Amino acid sequence: MLLEVENISKKYENALTPAVSGISFTLDEGQWLGLIGESGCGKSTLLRILAALEEPDTGLIRLNGKKVLSPAWKLIAGHSDIKLVHQDYQLMPRHTVWENIAYSLRAYKPEYQRKRVGELIERCKLDNLSDKLPAQLSGGQQQRVALARSLAEIPMVLLLDEPFSNLDYTHKNAVRQQIVEMIRENGTTVIWVTHDTAEALAFPDTLALMRDGQWLQTGTPQTLYHQPNSEYAANFWGNANIVAADALAQIWPQFSIFQQKTGNVCLRFEHLELQPNPTANTAQARLLQTRFLGHYYEIDLLLGENLRLTAKANTLPNNHLLYATFHPDTLIWL
Known about the structure:
- The strands form four sheets. This protein has a six-stranded mixed β-sheet with strand order 6-7-8-3-9-10, sandwiched between helices.
- The radius of gyration is 24 Å and the shape is globular.
- α3 (110-123) crosses α4 (139-152).
- It contains ten helices and 18 strands.
- It has helices at residues 43-50, 97-102, 110-123, 139-152, 169-186, 197-202, 221-226, 231-236, 245-251, 257-260; strands at 3-10, 20-27, 32-37, 58-63, 66-67, 82-85, 157-161, 189-194, 206-211, 214-219, 240-244, 264-268, 273-275, 283-292, 297-303, 307-313, 321-325, 332-333.
- The chain has two domains: 3-219, Rossmann fold; 239-333, CATH 2.40.50.140.
- It is α+β, with helices and mostly antiparallel strands.
- Residues 3-237 form the ABC transporter domain.
């Protein structure tokens, strides 16, 4: 086990609730953990504690079986094998892009420095910027420099705090893919904080949903999306119709599942199927509103007198009167 975290807690002075409360987990070499949650839920505080930059109230961190000393026990906070890419970049303002990236390689031979920095500049799309100072760069460019610098000397554990949040759309996908490939090639263990739900579902091996300093649910991205353990967890990813099962039973009384279970359910937008004509197990639905979202449409519907549901469709319906259905196995019972 590469990284062991036991019962980490942190409460700031005058705060009503802990920023982090009783967090424990383990990670193997090369494993990726994603942390996602609302702003202020404790994600960044947890990263700073893991990076040995902030003192926890309780808990223990081990790396390769050795205790990671907290700032109270070190003259200079931090750990040489754990690197944190900050949201605010923390670049050296009087040094060029090249010098910022090369700084952690100063103990290596010049030939290796040139090769490694050149590779990072190319893969992070920083060509033609190597002689620029941080003040001459956009926020997205500075973020790419910070990422390149963190990868210059390959760490055991890489902590990424919203690493792609300031990248413009033109560069985001390409740079993100290059960075992900590079980290995977190195076999680095990663803890990745993000607000981007698509990012959180796409890249980590394990995902933790945080709320009020605690882990509300952990598992694979597929588990968190398809098997949320609460209404909050189901709603977090969007694409969720949260309704009472009784309301669906009134529209689809033929589904026997509603005689067996009661409570609230989540019906994902993509699981509500629309058809132009009635068939078995369909219910009449009136189109209320549509939203074009690039590669699909979101379609708001009214079924019966007051049941409102949203569906996804690849094409825009031709009629305002549609027929909707779903497979009972796709319901998530909350």
